[in-house]
């Protein structure tokens, strides 16, 4: 997926990009991804002086492994996208503020790596099948969304037990 920056800036006319992308190369190796659909990119590119600004939304349907119960966690990711490109050589005083401006040496800006990066960053770090997933019982492995196993779930990490006592003392003693 790419845009012709030279033409965009010369004509000053916004361009709409609607494309589907196969992300197998990027996501195929992810163990936590059970399946994923095609990426849909809905972007527009416009010229802002000598800069081409590409922005819009990327959407992707993914099924990940729930981090609590290991069941399927389906999610429709909506990823905002915005990147700027210019063919102008970097000027010395443009520093800091323009760190998001990508310098290109050809007429075209290749969007794919930026799209892939945006998707990669948007994948949930701790996917959940549902907000209140009860997860697997650490004692017997039962999926507690399906049934109660009756194991004591009051166990507290021994490193935190002292801290819990401390809170108990302060709350019981007004
Ligand atoms: Zn779950
Ligand atoms: Zn249990």
How do the helices and strands line up, and which of them pair or pack?
Blueprint: E1 2-4, H1 5-11, E2 15-21, H2 24-27, E3 33-36, E4 39-48, E5 51-65, E6 72-86, E7 101-103, E8 108-110, H3 112-122, H4 158-172
Parallel strand pairs: 6-7
Antiparallel strand pairs: 1-8, 2-4, 3-5, 4-5, 5-6
Bound molecules: zinc ion (ZN) (2 copies).
Structure report:
This protein has four helices and eight strands, in the order βαβαββββββαα. It is of the alpha+beta class. The protein has two domains: 121 residues; 40 residues, no CATH class. Strand 5 and strand 6 form a beta hairpin. The radius of gyration is 24 Å and the shape is elongated. The site of one zinc ion has 6 residues, from loops.
pLDDT averaged residue by residue: 87
Strand content: 25-35%
The ordered string of helix (H) and strand (E) elements is: EHEHEEEEEEHH
- Note the main sheet: 6 strands, mixed
User: What small molecules are bound in this structure?
Assistant: zinc ion
Features:
174 residues, alpha+beta, six-stranded mixed β-sheet, two-stranded antiparallel ribbon, binds zinc ion
In a few lines, what is going on in this structure?
Helix content is 21%, strand content 34%. The strands form two sheets. Strands 2, 3, 4, 5, 6 and 7 form a six-stranded mixed sheet that branches. A two-stranded antiparallel sheet has the order 1-8.
């Amino acid at each position: 997926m790419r845009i012709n920056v030279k033409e965009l800036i010369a004509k000053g006319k916004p361009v709409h990009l609607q494309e589907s992308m196969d992300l197998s190369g990027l996501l195929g190796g992810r163990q936590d991804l059970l399946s994923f659909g095609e990426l849909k990119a809905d972007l527009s590119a416009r010229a802002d002086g000598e800069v081409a600004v590409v922005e819009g939304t990327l959407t992707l349907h993914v099924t990940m492994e729930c981090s609590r119960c290991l069941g399927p966690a389906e999610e429709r990711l909506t990823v905002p996208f915005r990147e700027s490109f210019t063919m102008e050589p970097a000027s010395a005083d443009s520093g800091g503020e323009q760190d998001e401006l990508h310098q290109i040496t050809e007429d075209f800006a290749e969007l794919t790596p930026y799209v892939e990066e945006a998707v990669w960053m948007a994948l949930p770090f701790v996917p959940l099948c549902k907000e209140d997933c009860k997860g697997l019982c650490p004692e017997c492995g039962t999926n507690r969304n399906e049934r109660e196993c009756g194991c004591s779930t009051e166990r507290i990490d021994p490193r935190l037990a002292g801290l819990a006592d401390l809170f108990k003392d302060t709350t019981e003693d007004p």
